């Protein structure tokens, strides 16, 4: 069973009488909105309290995760009220118990289980854990480092604002700095933002309750029993009837189930879109039959083709052109030329094999066999490329003609995929070598 370990600082495991009484009181706490305390354990690193584990993490994490728990389909007003209701019920029970006060109530000390029930943790253990000055801390306790039940009510109000707005803790447009917020809470009654002007009638009642909970005067703050009753009435108004604990839980699980279905559909659509993008890229780099074979079996068997035609071309005087061009101008030149070549290739039954520098290689008759039409298709493509180069103008050297050499040869050829990382579809045989030599030895 997974549990949560909380370090009990300043303890070596030899508990005094006061500490034993406190730990024994924790063991007797058993309420569904409070995490169960199982005992203590000692490791080399120190002594730890063993608490019940919240499978979905702390409430702060759930509020921040707007992908898994979207506002529109999951974190609606009804669910937010239910979350506040869970906390209020847990605190009402805790205040009535021998523990009496939490002292460290905040959204990171509220955990969510796999049934979407919020449970309060980190209560008790006051002999081991000291309270700190946080944005959830009541102003009177920021001044005197004390704890009280009314201070817990103030902390609940700050958590409630987090739940409603799903923004940063103690969100206010007038101040962003944490230290400044703490200072102004103590000196000028600064409070987080809640938009009363745009609130609906059902929201306004809850907003008024939250405002009373963070009142500057602790005596004017309601106790958790009143808070619990107020939120219970708000839930009843939503459903026009009183809702039992089981009804509430079933409703939450149904809501979470609907949200999961929506999330699965959304993620599936994203997966399909990414898969299609990957397939499109693969089909641009490798022949279609090769891509399908790699996806299905992970291997591609080399093939021997009896009749293919291979085309090679390169730019005449490419080295000289590079001397009068910057590196970026060379890239732009090759990109302009090869985009034109690629558009021509698309109109013929040929397959572009690769480009290396200024060399351009095309084949016909593989990987899709086309009888004895391979030579005709390559030659027609070559004539179209020559026509294109006849009108091509360099952007950075206008008026300078660009010539290409072309070599073509027909014959048998072997083809296969080479390599695992960045695999390449390569052609082998004398036909390839002959076509390459015809191109390199060609004359104008």
From TrEMBL:
<feature type="domain" description="Guanylate cyclase">
    <location>
        <begin position="309"/>
        <end position="439"/>
    </location>
</feature>
<dbReference type="GO" id="GO:0005524">
    <property type="term" value="F:ATP binding"/>
</dbReference>
<dbReference type="InterPro" id="IPR029787">
    <property type="entry name" value="Nucleotide_cyclase"/>
</dbReference>
<keyword id="KW-1133">Transmembrane helix</keyword>
<comment type="similarity">
    <text>Belongs to the adenylyl cyclase class-4/guanylyl cyclase family.</text>
</comment>
<keyword id="KW-0141">cGMP biosynthesis</keyword>
<dbReference type="GO" id="GO:0005525">
    <property type="term" value="F:GTP binding"/>
</dbReference>
<feature type="domain" description="Protein kinase">
    <location>
        <begin position="1"/>
        <end position="246"/>
    </location>
</feature>
<dbReference type="GO" id="GO:0004672">
    <property type="term" value="F:protein kinase activity"/>
</dbReference>
<keyword id="KW-0675">Receptor</keyword>
<dbReference type="InterPro" id="IPR018297">
    <property type="entry name" value="A/G_cyclase_CS"/>
</dbReference>
<keyword id="KW-0812">Transmembrane</keyword>
<dbReference type="InterPro" id="IPR000719">
    <property type="entry name" value="Prot_kinase_dom"/>
</dbReference>
<dbReference type="Pfam" id="PF07714">
    <property type="entry name" value="PK_Tyr_Ser-Thr"/>
</dbReference>
<keyword id="KW-1003">Cell membrane</keyword>
<keyword id="KW-0325">Glycoprotein</keyword>
<dbReference type="GO" id="GO:0005886">
    <property type="term" value="C:plasma membrane"/>
</dbReference>
<dbReference type="InterPro" id="IPR001054">
    <property type="entry name" value="A/G_cyclase"/>
</dbReference>
<dbReference type="GO" id="GO:0001653">
    <property type="term" value="F:peptide receptor activity"/>
</dbReference>
<dbReference type="InterPro" id="IPR050401">
    <property type="entry name" value="Cyclic_nucleotide_synthase"/>
</dbReference>
<protein>
    <recommendedName>
        <fullName>Guanylate cyclase</fullName>
        <ecNumber>4.6.1.2</ecNumber>
    </recommendedName>
</protein>
<keyword id="KW-0547">Nucleotide-binding</keyword>
<keyword id="KW-0472">Membrane</keyword>
<dbReference type="GO" id="GO:0004383">
    <property type="term" value="F:guanylate cyclase activity"/>
</dbReference>
<dbReference type="GO" id="GO:0004016">
    <property type="term" value="F:adenylate cyclase activity"/>
</dbReference>
<dbReference type="InterPro" id="IPR011009">
    <property type="entry name" value="Kinase-like_dom_sf"/>
</dbReference>
<dbReference type="Pfam" id="PF00211">
    <property type="entry name" value="Guanylate_cyc"/>
</dbReference>
<keyword id="KW-0342">GTP-binding</keyword>
<dbReference type="GO" id="GO:0035556">
    <property type="term" value="P:intracellular signal transduction"/>
</dbReference>
<dbReference type="InterPro" id="IPR001245">
    <property type="entry name" value="Ser-Thr/Tyr_kinase_cat_dom"/>
</dbReference>
<dbReference type="GO" id="GO:0007168">
    <property type="term" value="P:receptor guanylyl cyclase signaling pathway"/>
</dbReference>
<dbReference type="GO" id="GO:0005789">
    <property type="term" value="C:endoplasmic reticulum membrane"/>
</dbReference>
<keyword id="KW-0456">Lyase</keyword>
């Amino acid at each position: 069973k997974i549990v949560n370990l909380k370090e009990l600082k300043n303890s070596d495991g030899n508990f005094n009488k006061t500490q034993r009484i406190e730990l024994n009181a924790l063991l007797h706490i058993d309420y569904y909105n409070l995490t169960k305390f199982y005992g203590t354990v000692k490791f080399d690193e120190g002594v730890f309290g063993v608490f019940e584990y919240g499978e979905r993490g702390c409430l702060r994490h759930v509020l921040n995760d707007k992908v898994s728990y979207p506002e529109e389909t999951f974190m609606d007003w009804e669910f937010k009220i239910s979350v506040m209701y869970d906390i209020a019920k847990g605190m009402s029970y805790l205040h009535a118990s021998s523990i009496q006060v939490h002292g460290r109530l905040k959204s990171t000390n509220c955990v969510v289980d796999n049934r979407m029930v919020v449970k309060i943790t980190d209560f008790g253990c006051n002999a081991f854990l000291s309270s700190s000055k946080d944005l959830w801390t009541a102003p009177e306790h920021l001044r005197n480092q004390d704890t009280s039940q009314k201070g817990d009510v103030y902390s609940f109000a700050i958590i409630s604002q987090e739940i409603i707005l799903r923004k940063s803790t103690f969100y206010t447009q007038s101040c962003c700095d944490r230290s400044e917020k703490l200072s102004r809470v103590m000196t000028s009654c600064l409070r987080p933002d809640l938009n009363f002007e745009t609130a609906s009638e059902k929201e306004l009642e809850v907003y008024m309750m939250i405002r009373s909970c963070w009142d500057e005067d602790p005596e004017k703050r309601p106790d958790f029993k009143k808070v619990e009753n107020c939120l219970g009435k708000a839930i009843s108004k939503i459903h026009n009837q009183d809702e039992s604990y089981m009804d509430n839980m079933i409703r939450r699980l149904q809501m979470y189930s609907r949200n999961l279905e929506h999330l699965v559909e959304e993620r599936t659509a994203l997966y399909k879109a990414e898969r299609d993008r990957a397939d499109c890229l693969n089909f641009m780099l490798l022949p279609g039959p090769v891509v399908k074979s790699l996806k299905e079996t992970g291997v591609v068997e080399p093939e021997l083709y009896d009749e293919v035609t291979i085309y090679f071309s390169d730019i005449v005087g490419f080295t000289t052109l590079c001397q009068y061009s910057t590196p970026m101008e060379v890239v732009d030149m090759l990109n302009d030329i090869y985009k034109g070549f690629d558009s021509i290739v698309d109109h013929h039954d040929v397959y572009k094999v690769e480009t290396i520098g200024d060399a351009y290689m095309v084949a016909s008759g593989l990987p899709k066999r086309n009888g004895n039409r391979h030579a005709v298709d390559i030659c027609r493509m070559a004539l179209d490329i020559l026509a294109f180069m006849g009108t091509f103008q360099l952007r950075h050297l206008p008026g300078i003609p660009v010539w290409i050499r072309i070599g073509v040869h027909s014959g048998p050829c072997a083809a296969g995929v080479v390599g695992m990382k960045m695999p390449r579809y390569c052609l082998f045989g004398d036909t390839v070598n002959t076509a390459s030599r015809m191109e390199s030895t060609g004359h104008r």
